[in-house]
User: Fold these one by one.
Assistant:
Number 1:
Amino acid sequence: MVGVIIIAVVITAISAAIAFGASRGSFKGVGDALQTTNRTGSRLLNSGLVFVYVGIGIALPLVLIIGNRNSSNAQVGGVKLSPAMQVGRELFAEHCGVCHTLAADNAVGKIGPNLDVLRPSEARILHTIAYGCLQKPVAAGSPATCLGYGVMPADIVQGQQAKDIAEFVSKVAGHS
Ligand code: HEC
């Protein structure tokens, strides 16, 4: 984002300098080639240059910025994100990413289990958020359950926020 803006500013400045130089005839060769003999011609040439540098310097980066924002927010790993899931994504980064790995949110926490591997259901995530997590020892093969009062604190988020996170994580875990 910042990079795109810097590029936009640089390109605009260079184009403006070239347009200015050409209209003043200071680049000998370029000026000669571009300069026309009558006034209408040079006016046309100037407005053409303005059009080109506005187009390249402003319109193109704008299109890139808007395009980028849409595509990066609307889906990850082929999973389309609903508005609620986009909220869940932000909340996950804020509240869960420090402890959990989830590639779809660029989270690399190592304290809790890797959610891309675990791929928990929405219900299991909601239960974990509400009660916290201390894994109950279970028979091999059956899914682990969280008992609460463990290493993962309970109630980090509540209500709609918890639902948005649970929906997001259950849909994107393992995709990226
Ligand atoms: C302070 C670190 C920490 C934070 C913050 C944290 N977790 Fe955890 N989480 C853990 C640990 C540790 C475990 C595993 C506990 C265990 O094995 O006893 C865990 C377990 C889980 C599990 C597995 C549950 C199961 O059934 O095995 C899920 C799902 C989960 N966390 C989701 C989340 C979500 C969603 C958030 C954000 C709201 C979050 N965690 C925030 C540390 C954290």
Note: The helical segments are 2-24, 28-34, 39-74, 83-95, 115-118, 122-131, 159-172.
Number 2:
Amino acid sequence: MGTHQPQASLFAYRVDREQRVRPDHPLRRVAAVVDFSFVREQVAPCYGYNGHVSVDPVVILKLMFLLFYDDVPSERELLSRLGERLDYLWFLGYGLDDPIPDHSVLSKARHRWGREVFERLFVQTVQKCVAAGLVDGHKIHLDSSLVDANASKNSVLKSAPALIDALKAAYGAQEQKLTEPLAAESVNAGPVSTTDPDATVVRSSSGGPRLRYKHHRAVDNAHGVITAVRTTTGRVDEAQQLPSLIEQHTHNTAKAVDTAVADSKYGTVENYRHCQQLGITTHMADLQTKQAGTGRRAAIFPDTGFVYAAVTDTYRCPGGQTLHRHHWNAARRVWQYRTRAGLCAGCALRAQCTRAKDGRSLQRHEDHQLVQQARMQANSAVAKRDRRRRQHLMEGSFADAANNHGFKRARWRRLWRQEIQDWLIAAIQNVRILMAHPLRPVHTTAQAVRALVVLPSAGRCGFRIDERCLWAYEVAAVTRFGVN
Ligand code: SF4
């Protein structure tokens, strides 16, 4: 029976990190899937030519990746754990005796680099998913989620607008002294938080009013890959983010959207019109249908009870009266229709028709046909089935981010930092989808060499091989044989 001597060796010459980290360790797959080296070229202009030599930007980016990948509570904690974790050291390319960087290098790097590095990391993961055949690209699901800001409700200041503006200006000036002038412009129009002026007080169904940001995302229908991400302050209406999410999805995946699936918050006339003009089928629940029969519209005739006559451009109401064009609402792009003055006041059906003092009115959009077509698509059986799928796809995507990567709470303050957090978490979720995808096995070194040497020239020597297969070979070659 042996006894282990806990006394440490004076020198450890035979510690091989390659052997100590198991072959199927998730970080090996991450290293194979994600190319972090792009950051060197991208941030090169941010560094001078003399002074101290910085920590390698690749190492810094990998540290920020680890921060969210394992949902480590803080940067201090991450750096204090680093020396104890052989897998982290292997991932970073550090030896046992390499000095561990100070935690402050991470916040300094964020200021120095800006947001673009993290956006590029996210886009890279989307493109890898496309290359691996995990993105359908034609049907997307949209939703948003509130994220608690890193600031207390007690920091909210309510005062005269002039004083709020002065406070925001003073805050920006103070921040510029400490950091580079990134996003000094505030986006918060109402009462302002003195801790995080970009966050806004929003009430959610699950919690009371709090300072929050809003995260918007588009998820692909095939495997739930996140293809577009946008971060705003909490008070922004999610419906207005639909055009930019569709545009971002198309840019990131190089695939045009055929169908957009979302709940009734996105089912506005403007979104219907926008999608129809782009030829996108709208499977977004109709906001008007949802609101019909509720609030002030409860127990009154729906708009469908009025018959339109194209020849005379008038409506006939259930009481047999005619509604004519009354005036143009430029903001909403609609014509308003009304009966002649006084007719509704004396109508026997008035109680069932309207609660407005000056009688019932109807609105008709300038692109009425497009809006009606969108409504038909939104109420179809296929749309309802898509919305059921959206529920578990989107809720699953948000739940995974919240449970595994600390998505529901902002780590840092200001909108641009929250954008960085959202890009990192979305990138990590995509990487995990890539890793969960079964790879084609590589059994021999010869196959690995063939993957790296022969297959890239497949087009020239007559091979037909799809991108997904080539990617699988490359990943397996790097994972198993350390070829890079
Ligand atoms: S209230 Fe006016 S619009 Fe409604 S049924 Fe009577 S006349 Fe027609």
Note: Residues 317-319, 321, 339, 343-344, 347, 349-350, 353-354, 359-360 surround iron/sulfur cluster (CB under 6 Å).
Number 3:
Amino acid sequence: MLDVAAIDLFYGASRCLRGVSMSAQPGKVTAVLGRNGVGKSSLLRAIMGLERVKAGTITWEGRDVTSLGPAERARAGIGYVPQGREIFPFLTVQENLETALAAAPRGSSVDSEVFDLFPILRQFLRRRGGDLSGGQQQQLAIARALCARPRLLILDEPTEGIQPNVIKDIAKVIRHLARGRNMAVVLVEQYYDFARDLADTITVMVRGEVAMAGPTDELDEPAVRRLLTV
Ligand SMILES: Nc1ncnc2c1ncn2[C@@H]1O[C@H](COP(=O)(O)OP(=O)(O)OP(=O)(O)O)[C@@H](O)[C@H]1O
Ligand SMILES: [Mg+2]
């Protein structure tokens, strides 16, 4: 289980996260919702160790990882798909997938199961990442994270700029990873409908703080929508 307890995060003097707490369980999908700029990506970056927190603790599988760097957290089983995907445009699909193996146990090879999840990637193994469509790049970014065999997968806006049919495919894969492979999944979303259909629990952020949190089917939907509309 992931347990984020009362973390504060600053950029210079400006406070970006204020006492944020949340948790994520194996086999469950946890969605973090909020308008632009409320600190969703900062929260995920803090979980991955890409930003240092000033207060609070992050515990993963019973171990305090608050002071670990991103490489150590990757080795501890945390996988991260950044907002905007950040695949390597001049590397092939195969090479992009191989970059994930640095964090995997020695001697590992690309997890062939990712091709069952995303068949299009097998077809385009030799194509350059930059030549894939946006939806295909998102699938590649998720597949690359999976190659390190994470037990916690964090995804920053996996649906951003992607067509509805590909969004459906990605939702199916995320559901399978949680339910079928018992992974803990944390995903950031702008769109409530996607989160509601997929997530077991939802955390809504407003200006660096948690405004509302709970099991998806117990949340007051109109109240959540009000917090998300500009
Ligand atoms: N590296 C940084 N240095 C300074 N300020 C930053 C940095 N990264 C983010 N911020 C600021 O922190 C706040 C939260 O940013 P963050 O990217 O976490 O928001 P977000 O909820 O992910 O937004 P979006 O929905 O647009 O992706 C914003 O005001 C942003 O300008
Ligand atoms: Mg963001």
Note: Residues 164-180 form the longest helix (17 residues).
Number 4:
Amino acid sequence: MLRVGIVGSGFISGAYLRAVEDFPNLRIIACSDVNSAAAEEKAREFRIQAQSVEELLGNPEIDLILNLTVPQSHGSVSLRAIEKGKHVYSEKPLALSIKEAAQLLSAAAAAGKRVGVAPDTFLGGGQQTARKLIDTGAIGRPIGGTAFILLPGHEIWHPNPDFFYQPGGGPVLDMGPYYLTALVNLLGPIKRVTSIGNRTFDEREIQSGPRKGERIPVQISTHFNALLEFQEGPVVSFHASFDVKEHTHWPIEIYGTEGTLQVPDPNTFGGPVRLLKHRKSVTEVPLTHGFGDRNYRIIGVAEMEKAIEKGRPHRASAELGYHVLEVMEAIIQDGGKGTMLSSSCERPAALPSQLRLGTLD
Ligand SMILES: NC(=O)c1ccc[n+]([C@@H]2O[C@H](COP(=O)([O-])OP(=O)(O)OC[C@H]3O[C@@H](n4cnc5c(N)ncnc54)[C@H](O)[C@@H]3O)[C@@H](O)[C@H]2O)c1
């Protein structure tokens, strides 16, 4: 049994507080927040104790700090938790840079404490079924794939979306962890990255909550096209954007020498998983693994508890989170130098509409 204390009692903390009911090896005993009203509200709703951040970090009854703060605070809060002698499980990303993450990992190693990091959706039934299909050769040897996380921007639903458009936000650091962690789970580690990132809008408008109508500045790129080369050979094109109104791509497709696998949304725990062998044969594969029927967002912490008990590595590990962070940092910083071309050409003139058959002008 791990006794857990939450730092950061905002939007996502409710999902963890609900999902913990499914995992008797965890007990959330207290929550905290720089905004004490947020902690008190969650404490009332879920009948746990509200404490100040300092009290909670120093609480001797807590074994693990669940860091659900905004990304800009992940590294510093996790480091303070390690310094207080606690294990840590952090929302994604692990930190805002691999430099900051490396400091955290060396402090944890020196203190003999574990660090885990979200997402844990790759432990869900959908992703594990897809993993089993790849491992058992259902699509032959993987050669490539696509991953699409194309969104219109979180300001359409999030009441305080400022951090998504500041350094540390953006579609790659915010949503990339789900897709990149799922891809590493399916195909192994990545060895090379190239990308181009653009900023489509200089301002965004908050569309819900008390600040509805307020315009917020965009300080970062919000539309990325990247190529990921995996150590085992496959090359996946990865698209991440907060500037796309709608699209129809499958979240992840993996192409193999014997077929194609359609992998479900890695921001969920379930399916569907589909196997495409011939042009018109699509099979929906029943999930072979559990934890696919609802939101189990805390399973990574529960799995970590078992790993600590048995003295084995945990799956939603800091090493995995660090690798994914390095990939994301590379995508954001790469600037896609590519090959600049010497030639150019006129865009072909558009044809007139409603041409009669047989005429072209
Ligand atoms: N909202 C979602 O659907 C969702 C889903 C999955 C993961 N996440 C991740 O969870 C994290 C939190 O997201 P959220 O939507 O709950 O944000 P939020 O803004 O609703 O909540 C974050 C809370 O952390 C508190 N906080 C910030 N810095 C702190 C610090 N240094 N010490 C203590 N408290 C601090 C804030 O006061 C706030 O109450 C982010 O990393 C986000 O990427 C969010």
Note: The longest strand covers residues 142-150.
